[in-house]
Amino acid sequence: MINEMQARYQLAQAVARRAGEKALEMFRQRDRLVIESKGLQDMVSAADRDTELLIRAEVQASFAEDGFLGEEGGLERPDARFLWVIDPIDGTACFVNGMHAWCLSIGVLCDGKPVIGVVYDPNSDEMFHALEGHGAFVNAMPLKATGAAALSEGVLGVGFSHRVPVSAFVPFLSRILSDGGMFIRNGSGALMLAYVAAGRLIGYYEPHINAWDCLAGIVLVREAGGIVNDFLAGEGLLQGNPIIAAGEKLYETLVATINPQHGSQQTPQAEIHATLV
Ligand code: IPD
Ligand code: CA
Ligand code: CA
Asked: Which structural domain, as residue segments, surrounds residue 258?
């Protein structure tokens, strides 16, 4: 089992680097890309599709029995023991507009549990990687989530998409600022979760995110000593869920700031969903 896990961990990093180099070449020639719209503020280009095809081909060449869930290509072999959950380019709006905040995100579930997280940022050549029980790293350097205990002690990453109503998000931003906090949205949820693992951001909140955006980041944050909500609850894998991640001393404060009703009889997931209406 350890070997099966290690082999996939090594492959995830190797394939992220190779696919990342190809994606970087396309980024540098992005004026040649045709950009299509998948919805409001949701874009795709051949760079996204080709990068996902490359990752799928390399994984299948080594582990033909493994399953796959990718943003562009959908779900294959959902009942497989190992399921690779991929966003070939997270931060597409940055990618197509010439900004550097984009990355490749590769998460692996084993028996439904997130065990491997790899987020590769080709522009900075930063490989964030974690294997359950073995810690989180950027390149060879170990990562530790923040020790901050208050929102005023650092910068919080936030994400928003038009998959949720604007009114579900703006009051939360107001509470962050009122508490002396500050927020940043760089356009890549996967990269911001990696930054939470690295202690660069004190936490991350997005009212709805998809599994391919965050599964790698979840493993990174947990292995760096941070806390993440139960993202896979309900239909999280296929339909997405809210994501909340923070250093362990800050997590409860962040949850209470997202939903001031925190502590009532609701389940944590219901509490989080309560912020959406
Ligand atoms: C998006 C980014 C963004 C997040 C959205 C995602 P994409 O992914 O991660 O930061 O706020 O929820 O959809 O479209 O750039 O792959
Ligand atoms: Ca994404
Ligand atoms: Ca994407």
From this structure: 151-276
